């Protein structure tokens, strides 16, 4: 199988960049398995996500280059390029699935919102209860229940506000992500258009240079022919200059003979 560099330098360069990113992703996920801290795991996962976005952009550029080569490639080459692209997409999707798995594991790690009672708290309550009457115990129990209800209501309010803030933040992040994705796609299109325009300018420059050389050669030929014609007219008896094919030799000058009257 021929290498991609032999088909196109651009394809060979893009393939090399994608291979480098895949190696970096593999090493990054191996490193992620050894990290225990959730914050460090999140930062490492963000780096992996950035590499995946770059790899996706390169695969799109690879696909554009493949489409440009379709009209001058045979069926086997086209099939090989298509299989290569599908292999890249499959490998990238495997890393995306791995990233989602790690993200889910990090999300499932919950932090306790409330601390339990301290040591000796139950013993202290038992000591206080032994010195109270039944009515006092009931009042104390009711008061503790009211306080617990208030704490629960405050906790529910905090949870509700947290859910609302999280929903708004998720919506804002989703909108920003979509906007960034559109910007990246537009930048890719602009970069590709600039590259094609540069190639067209180079081709036009070569064509103009060739046309100028042809015009200069034709001008020299015309000048030479005109010079030969002028020399033949001025000096028709010069034997060193051959007659130009297709051009009749100059008519010999005739002398008028004077007849005596």
UniProtKB/TrEMBL annotation:
GO BP, one annotated term: protein transport
UniProt cross-references to CDD domains, sorted A to Z: SNARE_SNAP25N_23N_29N_SEC9N
Keywords from the UniProt entry: Coiled coil, Membrane, Protein transport, Transmembrane, Transmembrane helix, Transport
Keyword Protein transport: yes
Pfam families xref list: Sec20
InterPro entries per UniProt: NPSN/SNAP25-like_N_SNARE, Sec20_C, T_SNARE_dom
One annotated Gene Ontology cellular component of this protein: SNARE complex
Coiled coil start-end: 45-72
Membrane spanning residue stretches: 214-234
Lineage top rank: taxon: Eukaryota
T-SNARE coiled-coil homology domain sequence ranges: 142-204
Protein's membrane topology: Single-pass type IV membrane protein
GO molecular function: SNAP receptor activity; SNARE binding
Localization per Swiss-Prot or TrEMBL: Membrane
Entry similarity comment: Belongs to the novel plant SNARE family.
Protein's name according to its UniProt entry: t-SNARE coiled-coil homology domain-containing protein
Organism per entry: Anisodus acutangulus
Lineage: Eukaryota, Viridiplantae, Streptophyta, Embryophyta, Tracheophyta
């Amino acid at each position: 199988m021929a290498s991609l560099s032999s088909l196109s330098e651009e394809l060979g360069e893009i393939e090399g960049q994608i291979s480098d990113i895949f190696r970096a992703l593999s090493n990054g996920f191996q490193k992620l398995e050894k990290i225990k801290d959730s914050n460090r795991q999140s930062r490492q996962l963000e780096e992996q996500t950035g590499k995946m976005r770059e790899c996706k952009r390169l695969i799109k550029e690879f696909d554009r280059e493949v489409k440009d080569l379709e009209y001058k490639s045979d069926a086997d080459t086209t099939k090989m390029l298509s299989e290569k692209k599908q292999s890249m997409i499959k490998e990238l999707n495997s890393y995306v699935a791995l990233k989602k798995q790690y993200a889910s594991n990090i999300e499932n790690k919950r932090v306790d919102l409330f601390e339990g009672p301290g040591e000796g708290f139950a013993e202290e309550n038992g000591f206080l209860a032994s010195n109270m009457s039944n009515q006092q115990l009931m009042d104390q129990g009711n008061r503790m229940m009211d306080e617990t209800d208030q704490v629960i209501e405050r906790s529910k309010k905090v949870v509700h506000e947290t859910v609302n803030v999280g929903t708004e933040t998720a919506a804002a992040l989703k909108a920003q992500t979509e906007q960034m994705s559109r910007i990246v796609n537009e930048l890719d299109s602009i970069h590709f258009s600039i590259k094609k325009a540069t190639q067209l300018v180079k081709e036009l420059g070569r064509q103009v240079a060739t046309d100028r050389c042809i015009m200069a050669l034709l001008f020299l030929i015309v000048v030479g022919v005109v010079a030969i014609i002028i020399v033949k007219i001025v000096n028709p008896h010069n034997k060193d200059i051959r007659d130009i094919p297709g051009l009749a030799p100059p008519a010999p000058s005739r002398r008028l003979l004077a007849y005596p009257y």
